[in-house]
Amino acid sequence: MASVLIVDAANVVGSVPDGWWRDRRGAAERLRDRLAERSGAFEEEEIILVVEGAARGVESVPGVRVDAAAGSGDDRIVELAAAYAERDCVVVTADRELRTRVRAHGARCVGPRAVRPVD
After folding, report:
1. Cα(116)–Cα(114) distance, rounded to whole angstroms?
2. What DSSP character marks residue 15?
3. Which range among 19-23, 48-52, 55-59 shows the weakest confidence by mean pLDDT?
4. pTM of the model
5. What is the Cα–Cα distance from 90 to 28, expressed in whole angstroms?
6. Which three-class secondary structure state does DSSP give residue 19?
């Protein structure tokens, strides 16, 4: 069964002070595109990018499914972690509270550096 990588877009984008606040949607699209490049290297992996707020208009691309949270992105990530509890599920976030919540469903957590480009 394929593993699932759930990415907290707001947290990952917000972890680098590169002006993302001027164009939240554009920042989320750049992250999505980096993840899509990664998806080719890990075909057994399903990648889900959870967006919220101004980034809700970001569309899915081959290799990355974009899930637009109707409300809280954190709540949606917890719902997804619960839904994928029977699979190897990894959540990318630095949010301590969110990490605790998804671990309750058996998810593993890694920080934003796991998916950010190397400087």
Report:
1. 6
2. T
3. 19-23
4. 0.92
5. 19
6. coil
